[in-house]
């Protein structure tokens, strides 16, 4: 048996975590690591103790805010970072694996928190129909290594 690379393990976990999302529009998962250890996980959805979008608004999802975004959801990478900090884990120098490239707002948070690397599976720009992955561009401009995952996802648990 060939031992999987850690990048493959962590991205596969992010893909599986995305399946926990209650979002109607998009399921996103994130894994925050240091070296070969997981320090936090997250997926997109509402803050704990509020409404789950698929329960409260099963047809259309949560109401849109003034800019057209989800009015309730916290992004997967935000959830992973918030949980780590809430539990007093240092995220300085961490690597973030995420199934969707960070939006610009998340990129600013990732940079500010001191994450050193972001590996993403799918393009946010393609998903949103915009010209470029602004979050990735921002991160790379300011010294955070951010790039598309190049491995293979052979062990993802598929939903039945």
From TrEMBL:
Statement: the UniProt record of this protein carries the keyword Hydrolase: yes
Required cofactor names: Zn(2+)
Alphabetic keyword roster: Hydrolase, Metal-binding, Zinc
Domain CMP/dCMP-type deaminase stretches: 5-145
Record has Transmembrane as a keyword: no
Coiled-coil ranges (or none): none
Family affiliation: Belongs to the cytidine and deoxycytidylate deaminase family.
Protein name: dCMP deaminase family protein
